[in-house]
Specification:
The structure is a homotetramer of 344-residue chains. The first copy, chain A, folds into 2 domains: 63 residues, Alpha-Beta Plaits; 253 residues, TIM Barrel (Alpha-Beta Barrel). Chain A is built from 11 helices and 14 strands. In chain A, β5 and β6 form a beta hairpin. Chain A is globular. Chain A starts with a strand and ends in a 9-residue tail after the last helix. Chains in contact: A-B, A-C, A-D, B-C, B-D, C-D.
């Protein structure tokens, strides 16, 4: 249930609701989104009727959350969520671009990319220090040493860091450095990792699994949210289909479909979705036009030498072109009225 | 092979090339696209070396066509093709919007939709008189009577007509009325129908099959082109995958991928792709941003009463919003430089 | 509705039911399957209550057909259908093997294969005279000349002929020669062809489309059945998925799933399903174990010279091994009690 | 490389080879499979030519391993691997049946199932104590308490235990109890868990991910094998496709395809593959016919009360029927000669 408080309700009153729920064996959480407080309580409807709660002090109205995910549901928040990452608001109406190489490979490589990423006006850089790889014989990332380089980049260029925690054992270390901790597509149903992310003090970027339905994706987010971390950003990165002109199939309609069901921000990673440089920009623009809150793109100053995913990395000049075009499409979309039927 | 003629070459000289090919048992075709003539001859490389052809009068250069489709290949044309339909140029840089109901249901319904479609500035209307339906018990369209109504709409509103020929036996009749004859997704590999379309004097809209790869789609176009009809427009309409939030998965990256491989224009039908009204506009805008030459959308003044596909038809007001937004996104894209790596 | 007649009911009484339905604007059909007559009448429930029909002379009981397909529904027949093809009963409990080359290529090739197919005890041969091909430049079959060779094979070896009608225009000619007319996978929703097959005096083998759901497949069968041809055999031949070790994915569970929903016999074509010779026999045996009524396999005496689909054709010795193993598995399955939950 | 030793070669000589490889910075492993020793050394070909190794004492021949997976490759073993689990040989030619409830729910439930599973002659029981669930609100298993019950079952009925380790943190505990530790489909690319399994002293059952290609599956096995645990059993459990008559699509051809590429045993779990009781037996028999080394099936004495996956659990009587039929099909297949083209 979503328990909406009066505009004038106090935090004490909201805590009173929590206490009441607790007495019924229920967990809940206070939200400050919007102009008034609210309390989200999954499964409260199994214990209490709405009327029992609506008489509590400060409560204005109780509405059911009918979807299988509770904290993630659009019903559970009066407004779309804005997740702040290193001073950048994701989900607040601005288009957020995050760029960088697939993996940290060397100080030289990382700094070169960071320089032109920052130069193009971006405030967040993506790069993997730990890399999950299909083959045990492929480059597995620089690990802790890569994290040190990412710290350097933040100091040097003022860029917020988006980097992946590939397993529970490296989460502490990654969390220390990352401004936004990425959970990769293959780990979307690594429930131990999701629960750990849910106990993190950092926001989490949850990539969609290559064979996950929208509902499964939102239930994965629910694992994170349910542990107490409300700062989750979703990221579509292509799904596995038989269509063979690209590495994966960018499921563009999941962007508006997700926005119908959840209050969480939705980003798109066109680089992993298509895997071919020449398709990245058109698909990135498509994502912006479809309403994505941001993009995660790979760029490399020498993609032919990249240790992973070189064929999909944008060249520096292409990257700069993308930044200009994406902003233009975003403004065009914003200038005209919102698409109908969308919750947000 | 693509045999490029000198800028000053005459039609007689191009016909001389055809005669030479014919003597070798080869078919070819003269193209007038671009600033000079050229001759496309599939499989000429199996009979002649380039040098044998380059000495013919008026020939400037011979280039191989390496893809399995010859007439459809980007290599086979110096420029992207522009297909003219009722005075509207598809593929020439302008965004072409085509809208209308899924099927012709009555004069009243058709005229009501045509009125606001024309009122929004569109010049092409889509509506099926013959409807291919999964079940023999579903509404199969008004048939010939529906074609009569479409003729009326053209007279009354000056709209060009896009309508489907569902089988060889109705092609003559449909061709009489249509300005652009649609081959539906389920018929993409109906080779008899494709060959008939190839002998049509009208341009052809070839929808991608729900399980067709890009290469198979272009080979289907080759059936039409090879019979002598150079006016083919491709149309992506969603593919069948396990992703279940929409009826089909709009394969957005096929738009730029197709443009890498072929000179034919590429449109997108977001309505059939998603099957849910609230996802149509975001996906339509995505298609424009990805570089589609046009959109085919369903709209109905009373979708809840539609005899087919009501849930995906845009309401009149939504439709008008789409027209404004699509144009805005298209202009934003055009204003900034083209995406890299694309042939066109 | 399925209108079951008394055991002693006469044909006249069944025709009386038809006449009654006709007066209500309904089509129906008399079936002789089982120990008594019955009448199938799709949509009769929209016009009449069961009681109205149950009082007609000779009527024993009226049962609803709730599935979207009526004639094809398991509810519409008291027993599984047996389709007789050139003296061979498909669906009657015996395992029916059909083998031959992908296409008729020459008298020499066809007779060589027919000789060892007949020699192995088979009574039906498959081979395409007309071949639907993805590319217009691929071998399209020998056409009418191929049909002549197939007629020769029937005379010479006493084999029944299974061959494909690729389009309406060649149906008459194919029907003349074929004992079982195949509708290919790409034509599963070629409704004109399905309706033509429904007016054929020959039984029809309906292959499942590579992206067709079970329901869509049965609705395609309904097009044939609804036109009056009750002799339809279904054939699974692999579906299109992302799984890339085989050409298609043999959807083995569709065999028992189909048998839950329909009374029609179900065969399997493992050759097209996997496209790799070394996987054909294991998958053929799997199909038999899953309950398929028969197999359609490709074999060629010199697969490396085949003009189409060579890599999937069994060598003569492998083919003979398959015949032995398939029979052994079939007997093992028959000897033990039937799987639970299956209608048949 | 696979370094084959002379029949008379000693363990000391094989260790000499290891030492030589070690000096070149290479890892290797001695195998005792077959009539002679051999040494598998991934990537040795990058450092040494075959001749350098063939002169070492006791070495008979050096053969390359060309596939991306080395320890898992069919090239890396002279014979198919046999993995022994609680006295049962998986991969040795006998059909191995493993059955039990989806999850441990209570002592009563578990013992009831174990009683009839053992009574049917099975020697291995499957049941999850820890359950990975898509939703955080679904039954997550009895955990440690469930493991205690599984220990009881082993003592009471002499059944070996197959149970899942859902995450690294519970591996120690699961390993203590399990005779075969299952890695679930969603964890197929949980590399931390795979590496932990590779350091286990227990054999590992590696389920295929719902969207994993055969190559990705074998590379996942390589993570386990590469850490030093040679006892890996593969298990196909259905893949995610658009085909909607069953929960997943049982990819039956992956069984023979896997056997072409790897020496590891391959089992099939038809219960998770189809998710509907009435399809389980036909698909189980298909798996046996296709050459699977064993089956993993769900059975429950009261499926309608099961806390997870009830609809796919076989009833006790059906289960007993399956045991009889599977054995019959297996014997029929064994009695006839092996399918051609298979390595094993």
């Amino acid at each position: 249930m979503l328990i909406l408080m009066e505009a004038a309700a106090t935090l004490d009153q909201a805590q009173g609701v929590l206490a009441f729920l607790d007495a019924g064996g229920l967990k809940g959480r206070i939200q400050e989104a919007g102009e008034a407080l609210s309390v989200v309580a999954p499964h409260a409807s199994k214990v209490f009727k709405a009327e029992r709660l609506e008489v509590l002090p400060g409560v204005r109205k109780v509405v059911p959350i009918t979807s299988p995910f509770k904290f993630a549901s659009a019903d559970a928040a009066p407004h779309p969520s804005v997740v702040e990452v290193a001073g950048v608001a994701i989900g607040g109406g601005e288009l957020v671009l995050v760029a960088g190489p697939c993996g940290v490979e060397s100080e030289e490589q990382l700094y070169a990319v960071a320089r032109y990423v920052a130069g193009a006006g971006l405030r967040l850089l993506r790069a993997g220090a730990f890399k999950p790889r299909t083959s045990p014989y492929a480059f597995q990332g620089m690990g802790s040493q890569g994290l040190r380089l990412l710290e350097g980049v933040r100091r040097e260029f003022g860029l917020g860091i988006v980097t992946e925690a590939t397993e529970v054992d490296v989460f502490d270390e990654v969390e220390e450095v990352a401004d936004l901790v990425q959970i990769g597509a293959r780990n979307m149903q690594n429930f131990a990792l999701l629960r750990r992310a849910g106990r993190s003090r950092k926001p989490v970027l949850l990539k969609r699994g290559p064979a996950a339905t929208l509902e499964e994706w939102l239930l994965a987010a629910e694992y994170v949210l349910g542990e107490g971390n409300p700062r989750v950003v979703l990221c579509e990165r292509g799904i596995r289909t038989w269509s063979n002109h690209a590495r994966n199939t960018l499921d563009i309609s999941v962007v508006p479909a997700a926005k119908c069901l959840t209050h969480l921000p939705v980003m798109v990673d066109p680089s992993h979705a298509v895997g071919r440089r020449e398709l990245v920009i058109p698909c990135a623009l498509a994502a912006v036009a479809a309403g994505a809150d941001g993009l995660l793109v790979e760029t490399h100053c020498a993609p032919e030498k990249a240790l992973s995913d070189g064929p999909q990395a944008l060249l520096p000049t292409d990257f700069q072109r993308l930044v200009v075009q994406a902003e233009a499409v975003h403004r065009a979309r914003q200038a005209s009225p919102p698409a109908p039927g969308l919750a947000f």
